[in-house]
Write a structure and sequence with these properties.
The protein has ten helices and three strands. It has a three-stranded mixed beta sheet with strand order 2-1-3. Helix 2 packs antiparallel against helix 9 and helix 7 runs antiparallel to helix 8.
Length: 314
């Protein structure tokens, strides 16, 4: 069957049809996006300038912050602009690129969170062998694996969609291009494609979530043999990781572990893993981690000292 594609652009319905609500959302999400950028950049600068890259946990944390910035930037700027725009349109190519970006950075974040759970497992359950197991070469290979895994996942998603014919309508009941809303617009039967999409996304989301739950369960059980101080430090670090996992994987599992269907609540659920989680990650990791807070204080203190010294010289 020859592919027929009469659609050159798609129209988003956005978060709301009410101009008053859209104005409020514009202010709120603009602030959220600024927090995402500043918070994650601060973590990256703290890790870099304090030479914390030698620690596997902070090595992966800095790249998690990078992925959070990229992930939110795929959808947030367009959504914020559209909140005040009369016509919320996106080209066909732009839609496919956005779909690729959402799944590429989203899947990469899932794999990085899984690697970070493994890092905590080795640090707490095998402390004497930690630096041998998590050496720099292995960390680099694991990080590369997260990016490659994200790319393979997203390229499959896009390949499944681009081969479908779109002949109208072209209105997407969402604020960005995601697989399920776009599949609804295809003028052909998408049952098999929808099933493959669900298996692809659902297996990664649920599979990684189960692995994470098992990893942290083993860690919590092993803490019974630790000293009180060791338990406190381990719970402080793992507690932040578990909080991020629940906030991120809960909505992802809801969205991608079901058949090819869409609900009106999908847009608000998507806000959690595209905007809320990238915004909360810096807060969770800094407020729950004494070492990161101390490193930030040293960085801030160093900048204040250099500024004061510069003024004294002038």
């Amino acid at each position: 069957m020859e592919k027929i594609n009469n659609v050159t652009e798609f129209i988003f319905w956005g978060l709301s049809q009410s101009p008053e609500i859209e104005k409020v959302c514009f202010v709120v999400f603009s602030v959220f996006y600024i927090i995402i950028l500043l918070g994650n950049l601060l973590i990256m600068l703290t890790v870099c300038l304090n030479n914390l890259f030698k620690s596997p946990m902070y090595f992966f944390l800095s790249f998690l912050s990078l992925v959070d910035i990229c992930y939110s930037s795929v959808t947030a700027p367009k959504m914020i602009v559209d909140l005040l725009a009369k016509d919320k349109t996106i080209s066909y190519v732009g839609c496919m690129l956005q779909l690729f970006g959402v799944h590429f950075f989203g899947c990469t974040e899932i794999f990085i969170l899984t690697v970070m759970a493994y890092d905590r497992y080795v640090a707490i359950c095998k402390p004497l062998h930690y630096m041998t197991i998590m050496d720099q070469e292995r960390c680099n290979k694991m990080l590369l694996g997260t990016w490659v895994g994200g790319f393979l996942h997203s390229i499959i998603q896009v390949a499944l969609v681009v081969q479908l014919p779109f002949c109208g309508p072209n209105e997407i009941d969402h604020y960005f291009c995601d697989v399920h809303p776009v599949l609804k617009l295809a003028c052909t039967d998408t049952y098999i494609v929808g099933g493959v999409v669900t298996v692809n996304s659902g297996t990664i989301a649920l599979g990684s979530f189960v692995i994470l739950l098992i990893s942290y369960s083993i860690i919590l059980v092993s803490l019974r043999t630790q000293s009180a101080e060791g338990r406190r430090k381990a719970l402080s670090t793992c507690g932040s990781h578990i909080a991020v996992v629940i906030i991120f994987f809960g909505p992802c599992t809801f969205m991608y572990m079901r058949p090819d269907t869409t609900f009106s609540e999908d847009k608000m659920v998507a806000v959690f893993y595209t905007i809320i989680t990238p915004m909360l990650n810096p807060l969770i990791y800094t407020l729950r981690n004494a070492e990161v807070k101390n490193a930030m204080k040293k960085l801030w203190g160093r900048n204040v000292f250099l500024e004061a010294k510069g003024k004294s010289w002038t």
